[in-house]
Queue: 4 jobs
Job 1
Amino acid sequence: MSEHIRITRNRREFLTNAFCGFGSIAMADLLMRSAARAAELNANPLAPKAPSMPDKAKAKSVIFLFMAGGPSHIDTFDPKPLLNRLNGQKRPAEFGEAKYQFVQSNATLLGTKRTFRKYGQSGIEMSDLFPHIAECADDIAMLRSIHGDMVVHSAAQYQLFTGRILPGFPSMGSWTLYGLGTESESLPGYVVMPDPHGALEAGQPMYGTGFLPAVYQPTMLRPGAKPVLNLDLPQGVTREGRMKTLSLIKGLDKEDMRPGDQELEARLNSYDLAFRMQTEAPEIFDLSKESPKMLEMYGVGDPKTDDYGRRLLLTRRLIEKGVRFVCPVSGGGPGNLQWDAHDDIEENHLRMAAQTDKPIAALIKDLKQRGLLDSTLVVWGGEFGRSPESQGSKGRDHHNLGFTMWMAGGGIRGGQVVGATDEIGLKAIKDPYHLRDVHTTILNQLGLDQDALSYLHQGRKERLTEVRGNVIAQIV
Amino acid sequence: MSLKCNALVLVGATAALLLAATSEPVAPLGKYTAAERRHWAFQPRAHPAPPTFNSPADAAWSKSPIDAFVLARMQKESLTHAPPADRMTLVRRVTFDLTGLPPTPAEVSAFVKDKSPNAWEKVVDRLLASEHYGEHWGHHWLDVVRFAETEGFEYDNFRPDAWRYRDYVIRAFNNDKPYDRFIQEQLAGDEIAPKEDETLIAAGFNRLGPVRRNAGNQAVASSRNEQLTEMTNIVGAGIMGVTLGCARCHDHKFDAFRQSDYYRVQAFFAPLQPYDLVKASDAEQAAWKAKATPIQAQIAQLQKEITQATKAGAATTELMAKLEEEQDALPDALPSLFTVKDDFANKAPIHLLPRGDFEHPGDAVGMRTPGVFLPEATPELPEDTANPRELLARWLTSADNPLTARVMVNRIWEYHFGRGIVATPNDFGRMGERPVNPALLDYLANEFVDSGWSVKHMQRLILLSNTYQQSSVPETDKDPDGRYLTRFPRQRLEAEQLRDAMLSVSGLLNQKTSGPGVMLPIDKTLVQALYKPSQWAPPKDTAEYNRRSVYLIYKRNLELPFMQVFDAPDMTLSCPRRESSTHAPQALEMLNGDFANQMAKAFSARLLKEAGPDHRRQIELAWRLAVSRAPKPAELRMAMQFLNVGAAGQSQARDQLALAMFNLNAFLYVN
């Protein structure tokens, strides 16, 4: 009954491979032996799995460009000329009601200072905050009618990542890993790169594995030269010394083990994987081998874009190695260091856009030139958009009733706009799509059926989408 | 005992009249089909006689009723039991099982040498009486009730007095508090004995769920609704072992719980309000007030300014930051009891919420226990019923409640054997697994109730059985997951057991019990990843870092990496059963992690100190401490060779041997 993924393999295969990985011979040699490697993969719950809907599977990996704090749709990708004309007035009654976290009912509408222009052959309108992303317009499917249920950060962030407004449920990254495993043997399969400025309101549980086994948990990359916890040998321990210790552990375990004991065998294999991670991953994290041209393209070296550019360049390197789900986060710490522009939308968004525009465009172009964009779904968005009303005189409050996200690559048909908000950007009125529809579409591109991807938890078949979502048919 | 159930019905008879007088539409009382009522877990318990056996060997093995039921079940599958485990294995098994800690070498050898016929019984009784017993078994309960010491969500504020509930649970297990009383106190301690600290602390149970707070417009109604949901769902999942929470948005799709049943259970909580009862002398309160008053005045002033600024359309971020600063500057809250109380005057009526949406309430409902357990058309209780939660608790713990005793004995069984008789301990409904041995389950549940709901009595029965004392070596491949108990199922140590065992083996374990939770020093980058990094302030006294894991602070937004990697639950939902996954980051944690290496160094130093410079003696001690047995000849040879590196590399080789010990399957698993 339990849908827990179990390590399965047949007995004959096991007997063939048993203990190939053990003994006193140097580990590095052993790792090259294909029999040992096959045994390892068989015992590895993260081994790649076929998608449940192979005919739908276009994407192998997902990059979720999380714009934390909630970027304004009105100032970025959803032009609203009427809003500018109504600047300073109260919201006309025909647009209906909205609940905000701070803004009271007496607030007045705030037009945008940004200018919009059509880009690419498709002529998608974007604001001047993103001159570089605009160059990718024909790859982008602009989703202007997204809506969610919550208007405060923590609950909205949970919904964006887990489909539920409470903590404790698996994130889309964990679900993806659970559904597909990972193709990277030496790297974690699901990586989150938080903004070094600090944490977000929903905290760690937002990215987490919820009730799924810990094997599907995200690896949180830390800022600095040693991004993965426990990947470095402890001080004073050499590689040779470590190999000796590992060899001792294996020798002793073998002595105390019955042949055919799959669970203990799996544990020993996890030590091989750990060792491989330790030797191979640091090379992936080292950007120094990238050409100056490539570094420049991502904005590495320019103080504005250096940090985010490095993280996106690393994202591309991880995707190349078969990592399944990568989430670089833009925004962290106090609200104004996120896209959470309560005080001054201009100051905040000019700064946040300047940090991210060039690296994001570089990522899309780079994936494309490497032939990886077709198999990599790139998703851009925050937990909500921002209010057409002003907060204070220059800021905007949270707003969940209609906002913009976009997708590119991964089999998405770019160069088109989906849905629309009303004339002041208050509510999604044409082809509205809920966050769960975004999840459904992501799963669909990975070839994962939203119902089949379930886990029995306390008597309930839990799914990412909870209530059935719709694929955004226009773009797939 | 069915009187208690009937009493509820009788009291309810007048309620229909009362409700009929109100104008609001009332939800129908629901109808339950015979088939729904027949679901196995809703049936009264049977009183099965233990099976008997013709073969003298079987009869000898099955002297205890538990063994008879277990043997009959495996024979039905044409399987048989395993031979008994050896004494070293047994004493390690039962010590981890009852206390969460490894046995000392002296305890192992005392049992191995004890030739008296009741040697095993003495070990079991000694461990049941150990103060470490409650620390370990209390922790199991803390998983079920998703205990944590912070509120979760954005602010994830500390609950500075929640540890009292943790200590209450530990005490309850150590004192073998009858389980019916244990449930009554947690659900309704404030109603049952409003003047007793112990019961007030117990009632903090109702507040254990996460609470959402945020800046700006407080969504008071929505937050209250979330808290009521938490209180209701935990009764279903934790005590009744059913997925009552599924009926929050619609009638349950599989089990006989209507949406109206859900909200009728919720109605018992309608008058409940959180309550912090200050426990400080007048002088202490005055001193606190003197410190706090000026800051509180500042806070009030800032709040006023924020309101004005918002009205005037001016920026508020700076003011908000100042406000947070002032709030942080308030002196630590006075000691108080983290509890609840009924406030009937401000009770908000409970309505059905179609799709769970609190903004669009449906029909009104009053209190009633779920209808499938009552005669058709049993009315609701009168609205003015006193002590509503006590009534709910008494229904739950009445001797003939079909679920409560079965659910708890199944949990006890699960923690001993790694798998329940019902493999889904929080779901005895149709989607859950059927009991693999229904007669055994009912036998145990009857015994539990008849013993006065004594958990220790049940454990003694289980531990003294032959079933428990079997070897863990599989004799057959026809029972791969140990479902039929043809052997004792091997179990991996849980995250906390593993940490505590490392502390214990290295000799560093601080055995101090009870008191406020302890923060461990953790990687800087993790602290930076908190919304308020200042919330993480480990104590100066480093001995505190070596306390048992049950005394560590469980912060909802910061799971300790060591715990997380070994499948500790995140304490936001009830956790009926730990996962036991195997993956590379565990190996990295155990080989490269700071904690593993600190413990290895301490273990290594202990070996040198207690065994002297002789390698063989060091190795023998290492084995006895870490895996409770002597090394086998081949193990001894490998370890001797590993240490044979000359004087210069001596201490490092010993450190690495110590680290290797913690990484052995023999250390991580209990056979």
Job 2
Amino acid sequence: MKLAVLNNCVPFISGGAEHLAEALTWKLREYGHEATLFRIPFRWEPPAKIIESMLACRLLRLPNVDRVIALKFPAYLVPHSHKTLWLLHQFRQAYDLWGTPFQSIPDSAEGRQIRQVILETDNCYLREARKIYTNSQVTSDRLKRYNGIESEVLFPPLADSRHFYCADYGDYIFFPGRITASKRQLLAVEAMKYVKTDVRLVIAGQHEAAADLAQIEAVIRQNRLARRVEVIPRFISEQEKADLFSRALACAYLPYDEDSYGYVTLEAYHARKPVITCTDSGGVAMLVKHGETGFVIPPEPPAIAAAMDALFEDRQAARRMGEAGIELLRSLKIGWDWVIEALTR
Amino acid sequence: MQKKRKIIVASSAMPFVQGGAHLMVDWLTRTLIDHGHQVETLELPFSPRWEDWLEQMLAFRLIDLSQHGDLLIAIRPPSYLLRHPNKVLWFIHHLRSAYDLWGTRYQDLPYSPEGLRHREAVMRADGVALAEAKKVYCNSHVVAQRLAKFNQIQAEVLYPPLFRPERFRSGPMGDYLLYVSRLTHHKRQWLAIEAMRYAQTPVKLIIAGKPEPGEEAYAAELRSLIERYHLGRRVTLLDRWIAEEEKITLLAECLAAIYLPLDEDSYGYASLEAHHAGKAIVTTADSGGTLELVQHGVNGVVTDPDPEALAAAIDELYRDRSLAERMGQAGQKRIAELGISWDRVIARLLV
Amino acid sequence: MRIAWFTPFSRKSAIGRFSAAVVRELARKHAVEVWYPKTGDPLRTELARVGFHRASDVDAQKLASYDLLVYNLGNHLPFHLDIFELSRRFPGLCVMHDFVMHHFFAAYYLEYLRKPEAYVAAMRRCAGARGARVAEDILAGRRQRVWETDEVAEYPMFEEAIRGQYGVVVHSEFFRQRVISASPVPAARLYLPYELAPIKSVLSRQQLGIPASRLLIVTIGHINPNKRVAAVLDALAESHDLLDRIFYTVAGPCDPGFLAELKSRIAKLGLEQAVRLTGYVDDQQLQSLLNHADLCINLRFPTTEGASASLVEEMLHGKAVVVTDTGFYSELPDDCVAKIRPQHEHADLAAVLRLLITDAGRREKMGRAAREFAENHFRADRYADHLIEFAWHMRGAKPLLQLADLVSQELQFMGVTKDMPIVETVSRECVQLFISGQEP
């Protein structure tokens, strides 16, 4: 079968979704299909550009393609008679983030109009898909709640997990991923004000807005945490990430209301490390069993600090939880056999 | 030390059809990265059906990259329409049905008011894109002439180089001519076979390449030609995909390369490969862009597109191997003379 | 070109006769097929014909092989319903025979579809909030049905008929101006071709009952108030010194109520000797009357037609015609017809009638000029040539109109409203890219 994988793209920014799209394309070929990946640029600032990006997608054409697998808004709007969606998320700013500080579309007459268009378009075109999968129950629930559409959960595996390994359980909590307000690296840094042990924190990732990084650095400075908190403010390679995971005590991943469990969770488990996450981190909590494979705690710096300290003081517990984590993945069939079969059925 | 840039390399692609443009995009990207720049490669889908042109052109126009990167290099239509304040075109071809193929039997656009209007619309849109570019480069004089004639634009010729040409090597010279190319009618592998009928020396011919989708009948035609002229011992047809290593070996040991496309836009990577392997090129006077590279008697032989003339040229090379070798060496010089290098490409594109 | 020509084709339809004449000319150079709704008695013709019952019988495949689809529309629902519905599904070139299409759409929405809200919506599209209010008032019984009054000319609703088409042909310049201010679609004005219906022979004055010594003045067609017959009577009455010289024949069917009104006016003005109302006359009588006429009167106020077939007929007979200076009539050269100003109807009528009744030379000269103009312009062969020219131009406009349609539809499905910036952005981009080729 000739399959086109469609994703959106912001030039020079590459994150989990981009890796997944590439991995999916490679895996489709591994499983014997012809597959190609198209990344459609998406601009959402200023908000009027959202509509332009959407219309551009509607006017693109995909000849010589048997099926499309589309991952994100607005790429899934490109017309094709046989579309399967594997929704990584919708344009959340118009949905569950509307009414929160993260809505990004202004609450003006113009902004509300734009939001309305996004809703109507989704309601119209999501239904065109032959089958909709999502990456998490949270995404599926939102799709049902906001658009009245049914979908099936299909967990995204790691693109490649072979390079992750466990060296030992060291003295730092590792928090990888893009540095943005909604990923809340700042929360972990705030927690470091309250830790009682010598546990450290290592943050690594590209920042999107200069203000996000500046805020973190300010807190570190103001609380004299420079020796305890290390920030690597750039894109790190897969190998660097694997190495940082390998020696970490545990992983902290504290995003605000994430749609899915996050690749970070999978990576941590492949490195046999437990995961500290928050009760309001959304889908992440799905893959973290409190007390078994990590901790799910309120998004309060003192509580987070306590979890960090607990692991620092009991390395064996950290090891046990890490092992339980990888076992959980196996039991949930999070893997490419399952994904490829579902998407090409 | 050149400043590190953030560069978008943009192109279009018909899904699952990989043309020469894809290699150009890929190699340009890798070279830019090797030079320390940050590169985002964008290949957007494009349907070549004329009925779909206008809305797709509008789509490309609505994709706003003006806030990203400090340079956009656009390679294949209609990526020339993408908006960017610092846009450079490395123009490889037009939507030819509206341009040089208009009025020929390959026209594809109907000669109706609708077709005329499409043609006009495309030409106007191209005019906008060309005017917006900071600089317009193209891949051959053939294309430069079309730009001048149809769009009144003076484009600078910037020849696309091979990636890591050091992969190609010269080896002990064998007794065969080598034709490496996709099997398709206008590449005229059949003409090479016809020529072999008239060859008087024991020279051989190897034709290597995969048939284009839909051209399996052409491959069968070639095979039946070989049979009909009883050339089975002299002509070998490898109608399959040729791995790089195999191609490199075949080239290294050939007597010379033969390349006979009809009126092509540019010289083609196969010609460069031959010269990097130190081999002369046999071609015809109507091959188009290849003639920008091959000068008769210097780095190759240019004959009439006639089997007997070709046979004579081939025989001459067989009889005078030192001639073949001299012309092969001259090939490298010719490449340098034309400035076909990545350093030059980077220096020119990075405005 | 391969052309599908949609038209009513019954013997009773003037548009049918028009189509027969035009298609005959078109068929000399192009492959034309007449598509007609099978409602009773079709015209006999050698032209290639395809009959159909309902619009739903025709599908896209059947029409795929044509380069041009031409739809003839007029203000009469039974004749044009299916043709109209087809034009909606398969846009093409619309020939508008009537400026006022209100009767058609009132019947379409209210009687055929039985969707009063759709009538209101249509009136809103054509005439904005004001139009919608009028429609609502009519439906609520708060006002008289506008299509039964002269006010209908203010709500012609032709916009409904041409919506979404790729080209429009009309038969008068005033109508063309109205079309281009309502729509971006290319529009052309062509002169309405007219062929006199063949008759066996011309009846004599005696057979027609016209007094030998009097000048024959004729008004033909369906006699309704906007033909201004009452005004003519008033003007004639004023010229009582001329009354024994003239014989005014009003030849055409008339509603009984209005007929009674006219009769009583004639009696009151003492015009019984000079005026005759004939009621319906057949083709032979009509053409014979025109043959013998010394002068024709063909007034119209307000204008409801796209052009006037009766005027063309009179001009082809080489007669001087008194017309109202409005609509189609204004567009004719001043030496071919005698125009009176609608705001000074009485005074102008009296003056013009006196002039033309007393001056035979002027009458005849005008008649000759009228005939020459008619013979040169109202011709099927010219019509066919100009139509093809326009179709060629229209087809050239089609790709961008189709793009606009496509984008509009996409925006509509997205829920985008007219006031959002994307609408202006897109039209600006299209103009810049495909039309002007320049930075805005």
Job 3
Amino acid sequence: MPKQRIEPILWLLFSAGGIVAALMIPVLLLLFGVLFPLELVAPPDHAHLLAVVRNPLTRLVLFGTCVLALFHWAHRFKYTLYDGLQLKGLHTAINTFSYGGALLGSAVAGYLLLLLPV
Amino acid sequence: MSDTTATTRVRNQPRPYRRRVPILWWVRRRSYLLFVAREVSSVFVAWFVVFLLLLIRAVLAGDDAYQRFLDWTANPFLLALNVVALLFVLLHAVTWFNLAPQAMVVKVRGRRLPPLLIAAAHFGAWAVVSAVVAWIVLG
Amino acid sequence: MAKSITMQVARYRPDREAEPTMQSYDVPLRKDWAILDGLNHIKDELDGTLSYRWSCRMGICGSCGMTVNGEPKLTCATFLTDYAPGPVRVEPMRNFPVVRDLVVDIGDFMAKLSVVQPWIIRKDEEPPDGEYLQTPAELEDYKQFSMCINCMLCYSACPIYGLNEHFLGPAAIALAQRYNLDSRDQGSADRMDALSASTGVWDCTYVGECSTACPKNVDPAGAIQRYKLTAASETLKAFFMPRGGR
């Protein structure tokens, strides 16, 4: 019975995370992970980025992105281990690692983006 | 009489053959391999969250920390990791937007919108969001 | 065009061997011959002991599904010339227990079909005078999912079903959707338990191979994803409006 009620919620989180990750991550990873380090595009100066990060809307959007992306990972990774490596027997450990990790990451994101006085 | 029938039935019962599924079942077909790659992309999604949080922590800590972070991203191993991550994240985005229309039935005035239109709308939204984010970041 | 093509056919005789073996036959390579015609030639002319299922030979009965060169196919709709010069490998459908040669045990699938209650469920006991009326638009809502011929190629293609035989599976879920989306049906709530159980839609990870394999373009993968959304919104509704829900 519990599985029927939690699973749809986890799937919704996975789906929302999938959309958000697909929309937001490619451009950010392209900029900060590839273009800036390779000096193909000049990185923004610190003052500008600090202003962006401090903006309440940005903080909310980034927090939402982090949380949803982490829960997207948790759900998909769990099934990758179940089906790809046939580890369904270790489901307790896998669930703890996946959703526990997502909660931990969300807490860190919350601390950095919402709680740290800026 | 029913006893003999039962024993006869058991004796003639075929022994069905069940093939065991190998651990690497997904390397045998290109479509399965693509599927597993798509699933593995979630790991790089999680990596990005870690990377993003490190960036934000550096920005909040001050200009020095931010510069050190930028230098760190130029490290060859990290750069290679992020290139690979970018490829996987792109795989995720493209497969996601291509599959979304099949899961959604949107009706306008009683007629179902063609799936191609829904997919195009997703890709369009992706382009817009990317442009807006890039504009905000680059300032 | 060459005169003949080699067909490598899986044989399994449980009374004689522990595992399937392959046996090669040379059949005439005729332009209009399907794999099924090749098998019929083998049985009629070369080796009468070969066992396999077939019936309509025109892609509507769903009997002749097999694995051809590793792909799930209807053998009546797959042509020998597509595999020339050959050899072409014909094996039983994957993910089902093999009873003999190319014949698989479909009992699990038959049981699952009835689990989803594939009939019109109505609350009222009295049928109307004449038939239930339905507009063309209402027909369109479920028509695609009604095209299933129960050939089981989708189960054969589904890696999740291969790993876990308890998974309800593509065709059964698409069939449930065929009724859920039918305007004449009032039984969505009755089907929800089977569909939203842990072995229902939630086992599916949208590999999508079922829809690729389907010879009738039913798109069971789409049916499953749509139901996930339905089940998820029902769960949220029940959570936020417990009395207004189901």
Job 4
Amino acid sequence: MNAAVAHARRRHPSARWPAPIDGLRQRMTQYLALHGARHPAVAASLLEVRGRVGCDVDEFAHRLGIEPDLLRRAEAGEVSAARLPGRLRRMVSST
Amino acid sequence: MARLVAGDTAAVFTLFEHHGHRVAGVIRRQLRRCGVDDVAVEDLQSLVLDACMELLQVAASWRPGGALPWWWAEGRIRAVVNGWVGVHADDLDDHLASIEDHEVFHAATEEREIADTFARLVDDVPLVALVAEAARAAKIDDLILCCLLDYQVQQDQGDPSPAHTLAPRYGVSPDALRQRVSRGRKRLRAVVDDDPRFAPLADFALVA
């Protein structure tokens, strides 16, 4: 299977199951809170967005035009929603 | 999974969205093993969420090139499923309610004395009536018969020394009680051996 076919299959609706992604975000929020994150909901939302896009931190930060370090800190739950750059804040509020 | 191994927590969302159906397959298989053939979609999704979070926590141990993660972590997933299915057991409500009410239990019979139980069973069970008849034929009085029955009950309950247990109840020494039981059994045995009417009692421990 070449990369194009694999990519097409991954995007095809039949390859996905009805994933309750909200449930995973809530579990992730609890998980991060248990591990000491100060802003677990913000971090879980960012992780969800990047996880669904399928990028690593550097690539995702590059696409958004922000510092990778800021994204890492936000995903670690160290940054509140109010302190996020506008584009990230909109992503968090839309999830 | 390689991203999870590298510590990229976001990859669990990718895993869940793109491979959740594979994890669901492993879960369904384990559910069938537990005797659960039908599971609600919501419950299955919740189990997949739990399984993915388990994978996140053990991802650092996974080696690329090995088994697929959901097979590699099958033990973890199985534990999630087993925890959800739980252990089935019969309710003990009646028993617990009786304990809470401080009810006094009579485990085997309703009567307080073995003589009363024996008298009831003589009327209800033909073999017990035959024992009573054999005792009369052997000229064993009620007291000796009760001694024999009590001694047998104690033995059946695992009492290592029934004579010491029962001697205070009958107001005799353990040796005297042991002798009383021995003589009673011998007389009963003699009657059972001599009279074909009592043949059904030949294998009874009471006359052994």
